[in-house]
Amino acid sequence: MSSADFTEEEQGRYDRQIRLWGIEAQQRMRNATILVVQLKGTATEAIKNIVLAGIGKLIIVDGEEVTEEDLGAGFFFRDEDVGKKRVEAAKARIESLNPLVTVETVPTFDVLGEQSFETTIRDVDLVCVTDWIRDDLIRMNEVCRRAHKPFYSGGTYGLLGYIFCDLLKHDYISPDRSAGENAKTVKVTVSYPPLQDALRHRWDTLTRRQTKELNPSCVFTILALWQYQSIHGALPKQLTDTAALQSIADSLLSDAGVNKQVLTTTPPDLTESISTTAAHEFSPVCAIVGGMLGQDILKTLGAREPPIANFFAFDGNTGSGTVCRMNMS
Q: pTM for the full model?
């Protein structure tokens, strides 16, 4: 495979990437069809990255209309788009980022249903579901596994954000550091668990230092939000929801065996603040989480670098993020 396989326009547009990643990695991106579900702030940033990088086709599923709240983190939208379907308002602006990428929109969530989701993903290479509820993420992840499709999910809750990926058995090329100065590359294969198994991860094998480095208060606040949403059908929105969220977070901490010398209870100031902000999007947090999500999808497609393994949590209160290997060997 050589640069001659690319058109002159492609060579000009992707020259820097081809030199950085190599011809084969760029070819894999060009051949890829990516399905992204829900066009909110996280997806907006991720889509920008993967479209500019030169994937082959993007399919966006979203049945909602643009609201005034979407204008903050959704830079594909304008004031005059309020009331229009999100995908219809954004399509032309996404296409203008890179005319070489085919953009297809699906203005309904019906294709995510129990019967039709398997059909929806049949001809795609990777699925990315953003800002979605945990129980449906588990279901869609299982459908993707049966169809042998890599699966990403990501989203933000106020100042917190996450990325999860299930890449099945994923191969990538890595330098063989044991060879010293004459380092060659070797193929590395990593096995990923589905979300349902990842959520059963035990923390009691970690040392105090290892536990502290993973910022469990951020991780378990996100997991508690998922559980709260599953129980109540919505995210917490007011201070009176704090006690319920705190109880869930502390129960999850205890059940997972988190080192008690590090954390016995989720910080009350964190659960209190997230109870009033979880339902809102903050543009800087969406930019960071969505940017990392897009870059990680490109890593998976290019197979030249290790993707995250397998749960990334971002804490906007400190501006830091951590990667947890949840039930990965």
A: 0.91
